[in-house]
Amino acid sequence: MPTTHAPGTLWTRLVLRAWRTACSIKTTTVLLAALTVLVLLGTVFPQLTAEVQADEEAYGQWLLGLEARYGGLVQVFRSLGLFTIYSSPVLLLVLAALLTNGIVCTLDRVRPVWRSITARPKPVRPNSFYTRTACHHSTEVASRDQARQGTEAILSRHRYRITSEERDGATYIAGHRNRWSGIGSIITHVALVLLAVGAMWSVHSAWSEPAVALGPGQIYDVGRGHDFQVRHDGFEIERYPDGTVKEYLSHLVVLRQGSEAVRKTIRVNDPLVYEGVAFHLSASGPSVLVRGWDTDGQPLPMEDATNGQISAGELAVNFASMDQEQSLYIPSLETTLYLTLVEPFAPHSSADAPLVSLEAVPMGDTGPSISTSVSSGETVVLSGVSLQFRDDYHSVLRVASDPGFQPVIVASLLGVAGLVVAFYFNPSRVWVKLTDSELLLAGSADQNRLACEQHFVTLVAELQSKVR
Amino acid sequence: MIFHSYTLVSVSWLLVAAATAAYATFLARGRESLGRLGTLLAACALSAITLGLVLRALESGHWPLSNGYEFSLALLWSVLAAYLILERTMHSRATGAFGMGMALLVGSYPLFLVPAWAREARPLLPALRTVWMQLHVATGALAYGAFAVACGLSVLYLARDLKTWALASLPTPAAIDEFNYRALTLGYPWMSLVLITGAIWAQLAWGRYWSWDIKETWTLATWLVYTIVLHLRAVRGWRGKPIAALTILGFALVLFTFLGTGWLARRVGLSSLHLY
User: Fold this and answer.
1) A33 and B201: CB-CB below 8 Å?
2) Residues 14 to 53 of A: which have CB under 8 A from any B CB?
3) CATH number for the segment(s) A120-178+426-467
4) What is the value of ipTM here, to two decimals?
5) Mean pLDDT across A428-432
6) Whole-prediction pTM value?
């Protein structure tokens, strides 16, 4: 048996074959299946996040957890990349292949879709066509002109685009409805490509500070090319009448060159967004506000032990947990104050219960000069310096900027719009041949054949009432 | 209040059971009046669950979409609505017994499996106080409702081949396949919106629209499986049984995403922002 080859050089044939493979639906489904398996694998094995990887201690604990769970298999699983699936080259390769497939499919589909939108339907069909087509019907007519007018009116009412032609003593009419709906799948595929671009933009440009703890009055300098700061003006808890928490509220102020630019109370689902940087309320915790003044009543400089910043007169000390010990340094006394919270911590309550246990250790000295418990609002005098302690909350903010978010959402919504067009505006076609005594009707649809049949029954009923 | 929402949910379930029986008898005997009765009972069940959801909203003071019990009520509403829309657009009652059968199963969960304490109306937690939560859960209910109907139809498709059926009104395989496709196209855009509204909510609440959290990853996998189904349908030779089997697999993923991801997260030792 002779073998037939497609025309052209070997190179051309190879390119054509590669193009056909790249835009084949089978390729799409294989890639989608591979992607499904990969993303699900990531939920069966604990995944190493960038935040854990950046923190040496957390990373060590994470590895210990893996060894406890998988024992000697950890190395095998690690070498297979099962703990880093979402950043693995295999996943990236599948995503890149899907993106290529989407682009090639879209390009491949543009021409036929454009042709189906712009092509003029051919009305003249042989008689055999009217019996071969999926839906067909014939009926007697009283007058050809009247039947033609009636048919065109009915088809127009059903939103058919009509073309007619007179030939060999018969009138031929062709109607095409929703011929543009093929553009829906192109819109969806283009949207998926745009979504991928948005996601890549996110990967490239997004940044975040996962946990910025800000006590009352504390200021966060955004940096990263932004010349504004955010001040935390307090935290509140709103409750339902039964006492359960209704809302966490954090009062933030944007400062630009020292003056207030924007003020907003943020909630769990309502961040402050300023110049593309979002401040999300992610948690809260206990805080002790320390006020200090010297013997002359002047504000006392105090150094925050966590970041080395010096504040005059007032300093918020934030606690990540109840058992955490925090410290602050008073330069004028060369003394470090160690603070530990005393349970229960109930800010703004009127109870005169102890708030913190305080230990003051002078530099170079061997023993503590003071070790006592202090209640909220109580003043402690230390070598002539007065220190007052007040209970409060600090807010934990996630500060993030992601320029890819909006493009991703817009592209996704565009994709859904394309789906609606593709799924709910099914193209259908009808052909009519009218002679002086008979009307032949045929109809077909690419999708939703059952509904098309029902629609055809309706058309036939309407035509019969008009043309007989 | 004269009626408690739970009473109306029970009434709705009974009406669904009656509709299933009517549709099944219609399928066996082929009497059109029984099919019409099935439609009437299904419409009454939809009205009862709609009223039940309204009462639940009044009882709880928020949209009834904030916990597993309320979501299952919304899902029952969605299965009934999806089936009735399909019946109307496809002009056929032949698959009613399977559509209603799925509604009966979905409706059994809030009535018989959710403990009484979990049915109590509670005020919304701060994390749930956003319109995006309502849109996310509502779109999820609409998508899953349509997919539940598609799953019922796929079971019918596969069971039809057992040839132990002697039913008068059993639809042709092509008709069931077409019905299934319609149900999938009804649910798929909503499923896409589940991912989109979830991403918007995550961006507002957590500052990142995608974090490979176990729940969102399984939702993505479900979406991918239905994407495969819709693509495969265009490939010659893949209609019918493979599509039916994949549709059932898709719904199994839906159920696992809804009920099983918490268990998996605990088993594997994953942390999840969706588990609290």
Assistant:
1) no
2) 25-26, 28-29, 32-33, 35-36, 39-40, 42-47
3) 3.30.160.110
4) 0.89
5) 90
6) 0.88
